[in-house]
Design a protein that fits this description.
It contains 5 helices and 3 strands; from the N terminus they run αβαααββα. By secondary structure, the chain is mainly alpha-helical.
């Protein structure tokens, strides 16, 4: 009798765990990059970033032309052999400093461009993430994967259309 009671108690205790373990895990996937490409307003962001990149590139090219011109002048001074070593050293230092400024400009321009792009994309990314969360909750998805980062996927539901619908994209 005692054994039967213990078995009944154990069965009663394990039933909730058994039903929890049997809950179906539901997977969804989408291509995040494809969704952000078709969002309304993203073309404006791309234009702003492209214009900024063109401006920075023009400035960098102008700096490079100036460096090239100064370098050619220095090379002529060296080949003529009429300049004193002190003057050549001043010109070398000037070229070295100029080259370093170009390198610094290039790095800061790249960082500035990336920061601007991230700043402009953030609202779009937040909207997409919110739409993904809503779709996941509404359709009881356990996991949502970005297929652009997956090597292989066979099962799961493509939720891109549902996310686009939430975002008002046709």
């Amino acid at each position: 009798m005692k054994k039967v009671f213990i078995i009944i108690v154990l069965a009663a205790l394990l039933c909730p765990f058994a039903s929890f373990a049997q809950q179906k895990v539901k997977f969804g996937h989408l291509d995040y990059g494809e969704i952000i490409k078709v969002m309304p307003g993203i073309d404006t962001v791309q234009k702003v970033v492209a214009d900024m990149q063109a401006d920075l590139q023009a400035t960098g090219e102008e700096m490079a032309k100036e460096f090239q011109k100064k370098n050619e002048e220095y090379q002529q001074m060296v080949s003529k052999g009429t300049s004193s070593p002190a003057v050549l050293k001043i010109k070398e230092d000037e070229l070295t400093n100029m080259y370093q400024r170009i390198q610094d400009f290039s790095q800061s321009a790249e960082q500035e461009l990336q920061a601007k792009q991230m700043e402009l994309l953030k609202p779009f990314q937040e909207k997409i993430l919110e739409a993904i969360k809503e779709v996941a909750k509404e359709h009881s998805f356990t996991y949502i994967f970005d297929t652009s980062m997956l090597t292989y996927y066979e099962q799961g539901e493509d939720i891109a259309a549902k996310v686009k619908q939430k975002l008002g994209i046709k």
